[in-house]
Amino acid sequence: MTTLQRIRNHGVILLVVVGVAMLAFILGDFLNSGSSFFNRNRENVGVIAGHKVHYTEYETAKDQLTEVYKIESGSNDINEELSAQIRNQVWQMLLMDYTLREQAEKIGMDVTADELSELCIGTNPHQIIRQRRAFYDETGNFNRSALINFLNSLAQEPESQEQVANMQQAKNYWMYWENAVRLTYLQEKYVDLLSQLVTANPLDAKYAFEAGQTSVNVEFVEQPYFAVADSLVIVSESDIKKLYNARKEMYKRTPNRSLVYVSFPIEPSEADDTNVKNLMESLMNDFQTKDDVTAIVNSNSDILYDGRDFSETTIPAEYKDFAFGKGAKKGLCTELTYVDGTYAMARIMDCGYTKSDSVQLVLVSNGEGAEDVTLGWFQASDLQKNIAGPAFSGRKGSKFTVSTGMGEQTFKIADKSKPTPKVKLAILSRKVTPSSKTYGMIYNDAKQFSINNGTEELLRQVAQEQGLRITPVYGLDVNADKVNDLKNSRTIVRWAFDANNGQVSDVFECGNQFVVAAVTEVNEGDYRTLDEVRTELTIQATTDKKAEYLIAQLEGVNTLEEAATLFDADIQTAENITLASTRLGSAGIEPAVIGAALALDNNTTSAPVKGNAGVYMVRIGEKVVATGELNAEQEIRNMNMRTSYTIPYQAISLIEENAEVEDNRARFQ
After folding, report:
1. How many CB atoms lie within 10 A of CB 398?
2. To which H or E segment does residue 647 belong?
3. What is the pLDDT of residue 34?
4. What is the pTM of this model?
5. Distance in Å from the first CA to the final CA of the chain
6. What is the pLDDT of residue 432?
7. Residue 651 included in any domain
8. In this predicted model, what pLDDT tens digit does every residue of 83-115 receive, in sequence order?
9. Is 568 left (phi over 0), alpha (psi -120 to 50) or beta?
10. How far apart are CA 202 and CA 206, in angstroms?
C-alpha cells in the first residue's frame, strides 16, 4: 500500500511522540473473550485494578506496538534496547488503560462513537492523527485528503495474498492510532473534569495575594554546619534508629539483588588480523583489474556493491578527495588501508557524469473522484529499486507505472533537483573480527574461571590477581531489562533472582564479551534496612546534632552583632523578601528562615533558626505592604492556571498508585 510505503520512507521515531506511548492501545474484544485464559494465574503477566493481564494479551500488545514502530520508522531492526523500551511502554499502556478506564466507568464517562469519529476524521482531527507523517502534504503540513484516501484504500478488495497481508497491516496501523486517540481523549476529559473540581477559593486567593504584598529587607548571620567539626557532636545508635523510623516510608523498595561480574572481551587475535590482511591482499589484483567486481566485492566485503551513485555529500568521507579530486578517473584504485580494525580499498567504477540527488513524486490516483497525492521528495535510497530506477532516469513531468504489493501504481515525476557530479564506487572492506577458534579460546578461559572460582571471595581474589575488571551492580530490579550497559544481559537478571547469596554463575554471552557473575546481596524485604541507609542517616543525624550545638552556642545572644562576633561572621542582607520568595539572598534556598523572618514584628531579631545549610539569626526592619487591591477572580485564575500544569501528572500518578497492581513480568521476560 502506497501510504504504508510513505510512512516507511518518512518514518518518525514512535517512542518520542509526547503522551502517545503512554496512552496508546485499547484491547479489542478478541482479548476479552475466552475467560479461561484469565483464570490461570500462572500465565498472568500481572493484575491491574482487578484485571488479570494474561501473557497472550501482553504479547499481542507488544507485537502490535512493534509493528507500528516498524511501519513508522521504516526499519525492521528491533535491537535489544528498543525491544526493552517497547516492553516497558506496553506495560505503561496497560496500566493507563485499566486504571483510567476503571475511574471513568465509576462516573459514567466514556468517548462516544460520534466523538471518536470527529476526532479521527473530522474537519479538525486530534493532534495524534495530525502528527502522522503519512498524512502530510509536500509542505510538511497535515492533509486531510491524504487521510481520507488512506481510509478509502482500506475498503478496497484485495487481489492477492500479499495485498491481503498489506491491507491487514494497514488496518492494524489505523486501529492502533484510533485507539490511541480514544484513550488520550478519555484522559483529557477526565483531567478537564478534575480541573473544574480542584480550584482555588477566595481564601486561597487572599493568602496568595498577601504573600506577595508584604516585603521586608532581612539582615542575617549564618553559621554553616560544615564549620562545626564532627568531633564536637555525638550521634548515638538511638538517634539513627529514631530518624530511620521517621523516614521509613521513604525507603520502600521492590525485591532486588546486588552482584559483581567479571568480563572477558571477545576481541580478535593477531592471527585473525593476519588472516584478514592476507585475504585482502589476495583479492587486490582481481579487484583492481577485472571489469566486473560485483562478485568479488559482494562475496568478501562488509559493504556490498549495488551500483549506486555517490555524490560529494553521500560518499564516505575518506573517499571524497579520491573520487572527486583532480586525478579521479574510471578504474582508479586506492591502496589497501587499515583504519580502526578494518582493511579496505576502493575503485572508481564510473565517473564524469551528473544526476539529480532527489525527485519529487506524486501518486496518480486510479480511483474515480480520488485526488492525486503529493508524496514529497525522495533520494534513491528512500525508494524501492523498481521505483527508484524510473524515477531518477525519467524526465520531469513524465509518468511511470510499477507493480507493487497493492497492484499497479502510477507515479508522476513532479520535479527533480539540479544534477550534480556522481561516481560509482566499489568498496572492498573487511573488519577484523574474532574467528571461531578465538571465540572458543576466550569462552574456555571464561568457563574455567567460573568453574575454578565458585565463591564470591575467590572470584574477586583471582580476578584481581589476573588483572580482570570487577564491576559491581547494586539494587538490581527483578524487571530490569539489562545489567548496566551489558547487551543481551536479561538472562543475568533472571539468574540472579534464582541464585543464592554468594553463588557464582556460569558463562553469559553479552554482546562482545563473556561475563561471569556472583550474587553479593539478596534483598526480599519491603523496605531498605537501616544498615543499607546508615550512611545517609548518619549524615542527617550529624547535621541535626550540629544544629542543636549551634543553637546552644547562641543561648543568651540577643543581637546580630553579638552573633557575628561569636561566629566571626559577617552580617549579610537579603532585600525585598516575601512569603513567595524561595531564596534568602546569597544563602540560597532557606524557606524556614524566610518564614521566621516574615513572622517577626517590625524592627525585631529572631531566636536561632535551623536552616538547610546552617543555623541563622535574622533581623528585620519595617515591613512594606504594597498598596494594590486584591482582585480575587484574577488571583484565582492565576492559581488555577498554575495548578493545571500539575493536575494531569498528579491525577494519573495517583490513579496508578492507588490501583492494586501486581507485576509478574519478570517470569516472562
Report:
1. 12
2. helix 632-658
3. 41
4. 0.60
5. 34
6. 97
7. no
8. 888 888 888 888 888 888 888 888 899 999 999
9. left
10. 6
Please tell me the distance from the alpha carbon of residue 207 to that of residue 299, in angstroms, as a whole number. 79
Range of the domain at 408: 358-416
Q: Does one domain contain both 335 and 478?
A: no
List the one residue out of 455, 433, 454 whose CA is nearest residue 442: 433
Looking at the structure, do residues 190 and 221 belong to the same domain, yes or no? Answer: no
Place of cell 546486588: 258
- The neighbour count for residue 319, using CB atoms within 10 Å, is 18
The total number of structural domains in the chain stands at: 5
- Per DSSP, the three-state class of 604 is coil
- With cell 497525492, the residue in question is 373
| Chain-centroid distance, C-alpha 214 | 45
On whether residue 295 sits in a domain, the answer given is: yes
Regions of the chain with pLDDT less than 70:
1-42, 138, 367-370, 404-407
Q: Which amino acid does the sequence have at 492?
A: I
Distance CA 560, CA 200 (A): 40
Q: In what order do the strands lie in the sheet with 399-404?
A: 373-379, 358-364, 407-416, 399-404
Residue 121 placed within a domain: yes
Burial 586-601 (b: 16+ CB within 10 A, else e): ebeebeebbebbbebe
Do residues 19 and 168 both lie within one domain?
yes
Q: Under 8 Å CB-to-CB from 622, ≥6 apart: which residues?
A: 216, 602, 603
Reading the block at residue 155, the C-alpha cell is 475498503
Grid cell, residue 610, equals 535551623
Going by the DSSP 8-state scheme, the letter that residue 95 receives in this structure is H
**What grid cell was written down for 1?**
500500500
Residue 198: Cβ-neighbour burial (10 angstroms; 0-12, 13-18, 19+): middle
Asked if the structure places residue 62 within a domain, the reply is yes
Distance between CA atoms of residues 71 and 172, nearest Å:
11
C-alpha cell at position 390: 524510473
Residue 330 Ramachandran class (φ > 0 left, ψ -120 to 50 alpha, else beta): beta
DSSP H helical ranges for 453-611: 456-465, 490-498, 534-553, 560-567, 591-599
282: which strand partners? none
pLDDT at position 404, please?
65
- Within 8 A by CB and 6+ apart from 88, the residues are 481
The widest CA-to-CA distance across the chain, in whole angstroms, is 100
- At 182, which helix (H) or strand (E)? helix 161-197
pLDDT at 151: 86
Q: What is the dihedral sign for C-alpha 563, 565, 569, 575?
A: positive
**Could you give the 3-state DSSP secondary structure of residue 347?**
strand
Residue with cell 523572618: 597
> Do residue 85 and residue 17 come from a single domain?
yes
Cα-based distances in Å from 409 to 1, 40, 152: 10, 50, 16
Interatomic CA distance for residues 222 and 570, integer angstroms: 8
Residue count of the chain: 669
